[in-house]
Design goal:
This protein is mainly α. The protein has 16 helices and no strands.
């Protein structure tokens, strides 16, 4: 698919994702209306407000009323309060601008290298959905310094606050990115209407399996080694000299750990193994996706493999979280509502970005060293989706003969 044809679906998806998250943030005030608590329940309404707050232009009460940010009284305090409100507004402008700026290039690469034609539609939809989560997380991270400064104590525990902003309010991003992915794929199907089928690439099975195993081992390092409770505690307690960067432990945990687990002490062994099935599901999804990416991508370039591996890790993370939600709901006898069970949905995206990039790069390198890259280049189909003919073919003139 050409850049011109891929740009339209990517822009449609980016505008749709931005509009949905803006609308979700503007809906926070609806949770404060009379009767909302009776309809949704107090706990569910509080959880929903927690989900929507990161995308709301309405400043928290502590900023609007000058609680905890004012340095004095009188006019000076009012001036400081307006400055803090201005910082918060700036952070939200940067957040939505960064959301569009991050989503569109990634979606453009995915739609161009993974066009949603026969045999690739589901993969393209899942990849764009995962990239929407990454875009939301990066947008929150980029705008976090302004948001932290607007609270009046930006130099206090800056890295833990930055880590919290990176993983805050991802539940609503999961839903918005799902709708944006559907819109992107639908627009891409329209722009590719009339184009012929794109053949699957020919990659040696042995090279593809080896490359997928290497990439999955990188993800397993985070999920099985670093996420083990004693190791995670050591990562959490890392400290450095200096004031601003003195407490990097929380930041490292957010960007390096895909989960958290401990031994079966104090719990039934069967239940412990059942929850480990969710971890195995994540690794299985990552391995299968890395195994198929060299076949589906057209062509399997290093940037495309890196972005594809990030999307595969995010999808595996979502599959793990959904299975854990089902297990937790079954264990609790559905005493908790769906909103409470979904509290962990969308978490771990920073670590998925970190390890997904490393896994994608190592997968592409292993594939090239194992001979898969050269074989794919020689025996594959066309590198880009052919455009439909714009004029009818000319028939031969047989009047003379």
């Amino acid at each position: 698919m050409t850049y011109r044809r891929a740009a339209v679906p990517a822009l449609v998806g980016g505008l749709l994702l931005t509009a949905l998250l803006w609308w979700a943030g503007a809906s926070v005030n609806a949770l404060h209306l009379a009767g909302t608590t009776e309809v949704l329940g107090g706990r569910a309404a509080a959880e929903l407000e927690h989900w929507l707050a990161p995308w709301s232009y309405d400043a928290p009460d502590s900023l609007r009323f000058g609680i905890g940010v004012s340095g004095g009284t009188g006019d000076a305090a009012g001036t400081d309060g307006s400055r803090y409100l201005s910082l918060y507004t700036t952070s939200m402008q940067i957040r939505f601008g960064a959301l569009l700026a991050v989503f569109v290039p990634g979606a453009l690469l995915l739609v161009r290298r993974l066009p949603p034609v026969r045999g690739r539609t589901t993969a393209a939809f899942l990849a764009v959905w995962a990239w929407g989560l990454v875009a939301g997380m990066l947008a929150a991270t980029v705008s976090a310094p302004w948001s932290i400064a607007s609270r009046g104590h930006g130099s206090y525990r800056f890295l833990p606050q930055l880590a919290s902003s990176s993983s805050y309010g991802q539940q609503i991003t999961v839903l918005a990115a799902l709708v944006a992915a559907a819109g992107t794929v639908l627009a891409a199907r329209i722009t590719t209407k009339g184009a012929g089928p794109l053949p699957l690439r020919q990659v040696p099975a042995r090279a593809a399996r080896l490359a997928a195993t290497v990439g999955t081992a990188v993800v397993a390092l985070s999920l099985l080694v670093l996420s083990y409770q004693p190791v995670a505690a050591a990562v959490q307690t890392v400290s450095l000299s200096g004031r601003l960067l003195a407490e990097p432990g929380e930041f490292l945990r957010t960007w390096l750990l895909l989960g958290g687990w401990a031994g079966p002490a104090g719990a039934p062994l069967g239940d412990w193994f059942l929850y480990r099935v969710a971890d195995a599901l994540l690794l299985a999804v990552v391995w299968w996706a890395l195994r198929k990416l060299p076949v589906l991508l057209a062509p399997a370039t290093v940037p495309a493999m890196a972005v594809g591996a990030v999307c595969a890790t995010v999808i595996g993370l979502l599959a793990r979280q959904l299975l854990q939600m089902a297990l937790t709901g079954a264990d609790s006898g559905m005493r908790w509502g769906l909103v409470q069970l979904s509290g962990g949905l969308g978490g771990g995206v920073p670590a998925a970005l970190t390890w997904g990039l490393v896994a994608g790069l190592l997968t592409a390198l292993t594939l090239r060293l194992a001979g898969g890259g050269a074989e794919a280049d020689n025996g594959s189909g066309p590198a880009a989706l052919p455009d439909p003919p714009t004029t009818a073919p000319t028939l031969p003139d047989r009047s003379a003969g």
